[in-house]
Protein 1
Amino acid sequence: MARRGGFPGGMGGFGGMNLNNLMKEAKKMHNEELKTQLEKISSFIALYLKSNSNLKDTLLQIETLHSDFTERLMQKHGNLTKGDQKLATYLRIGLSNKDISILTDNPPNTINIARYRLRQHLNLQPKESLTEYIRKI
């Protein structure tokens, strides 16, 4: 699930590098310059793969550490999807929409829609705080 043009968490990539920019520069180069540029691209891809692996590990650790919360949540609201459960867990530990967007590699608008659906599944009233409700479970 790579974000267009770069890494999860931003379009700039690591150290301001961007795969699209690196590729454009490579197309303009000659032999020795091209070899150097291809090495940069290779490093860029290696960093991405490592970052993606670390991200998956982080998400798994969060879900594992809060499995007791997920069980209580499902006892109270058995109709929740896996996505609802994950979002509730992220909200419970205080992550912002932007943080969740970065961690899950989804646009912020997708997180807002997921929050709206979670509110519906939890039968919350418009004035009730989703985060406060989740933290009380």
Note: The chain has seven helices and no strands.
Protein 2
Amino acid sequence: MVECEKGEKMDYINFSVTESKPIKDKDFKEFDVRVLLSGQQMIPAIFNAVEVMAAHNFKFAEFDLFTCSCGVPGCAGFQSPIVQKIKDNKVHWIFPDEGDYKTDKLEYVFDAEQFFDAFKNLINLILRKESNREFLTSNIDWLSVDEEEGAFKSEKEAYSINDNLEYAQNRFKEEEEFHLFLSEKESELYNKSFLISYNGEKYGHKISFDWLINAIINYEKPKDKDEYYENILLAIKSIKESLLGNNTLLERTTADFYRDLDGSVGFLSRWFNVFPENQDEIKIDIDFKKLSIDLV
């Protein structure tokens, strides 16, 4: 722990880098980043560099700290994101309670100045190493698709952390606006968790308010921003009515957003394939009359 100006004990974050190792038949080397929280090194997994770097200065962000060499965090066992909130010169990292990250606690609170300095130093170090043809493991494409043969082949090409940073930052900007809107319009439900049920059977995982909203509107983002926020408000209203026992609006709203899909495939499909009558994740025929929501 470190002590800030007001004498308050705070967590702190640091980074270290592994030794750069040569890659066979390539003119560059690879290295990785280790994350230390209040002096304790986290598990030695592949640092999800672009996403973490892009997210670190947003007031709200959800990101995967680590990933797999294929680029999919879930493939490496990280199923739920870290939630970042910045307020009153403090940075909060809230880890999923599933325990994927094996941290000593679920929430770390960093002094913002120390936090941003640590990231600034890390970014500068990564860029210096890139100038010497040393690249992060997560910034090396280990596999690519052979278009002629339609198969994977070993590629091992490296790219700079700056190549995809702007794209990731724009995505986090949209998400931050979405969360700020939710927290302003429905502060009472914003920090709540929910369980979704189908035909009386509850889905086993807790669902956050923002995920529930996205599920109802099928993560659809019209080009017209006003229409998008109108859709969110409609979803909020349907949730509130469902919690009071009236699922009519929830049924109608959700069905509308899934109407044009083949067999109701969409954002909800990742949940409903767990139910016995919907084992086909590719095509799921959902009866929205059987859909209901409960507070955890």
Note: The chain has two domains: 2-143+152-164, 186-295.
